[in-house]
Specification:
Layout (H helix, E strand, L loop, with lengths): L2 H13 L5 H13 L1 H19 L7 H49 L11 H36 L1
Helix pairs in contact: 1-2, 1-3, 2-3, 4-5
């Protein structure tokens, strides 16, 4: 392989700054005396400059949009979980308040408030337990209803 042929194979790499210093020196020495290689390396340098001038690849808008949509969904889910916790706390407080406030009324209706102080507490406690269960069950139903309604609103939005 002649010197010319050997150098010719290195010209593209030289234009791309991909040669070792020794190889680069060889190329420079050769193109000083070889018009062909000099012209060739100029062409490669032009091409290399053009390549460097190209914009660096950017993520495609679709991918960026998808990532943003996923982030939005995750944020919405987190907000919903927080909202559900608040609703649950509200339901629990409401259930307790309803139980405590309305119990005397229920007791009054079902046999007089003095019955609460009656020594026969067994009967009263069973009634209280049943009443509490009913209130809490309706509280739970309200929580389910609220979360379903919220999900429907979100899917419409
Ligand atoms: Zn040459």
């Amino acid at each position: 392989m002649s010197d010319h042929e050997k150098i010719r194979e290195l010209l593209a790499l030289s234009a791309a700054d991909a040669l070792t210093r020794a190889e680069e020196e060889q190329v420079m020495n050769h193109i000083r005396t070889c018009a062909d290689c000099s012209t060739e390396v100029d062409r490669w340098r032009l091409l290399a400059a053009g390549m460097r001038g190209l914009p660096t690849p950017q993520p495609r808008p679709v991918i960026v949009e998808r990532a943003r949509a996923q982030a939005a969904i995750r944020l919405a889910e987190e907000a919903e979980h927080r909202w559900q916790r608040i609703v649950m706390m509200g339901v629990i407080l409401f259930a307790w308040a309803t139980t405590l406030i309305s119990w005397p009324v229920v007791k009054l209706v079902s046999g007089g408030i003095l019955g609460m102080l009656d020594p026969g507490l067994n009967h009263a406690w069973i009634a209280f337990a049943i009443f509490t269960t009913i209130v809490w069950a309706s509280g739970g139903a309200a929580a389910v209803f609220l979360s379903l309604q919220q999900r429907r609103e979100r899917s419409l939005a």
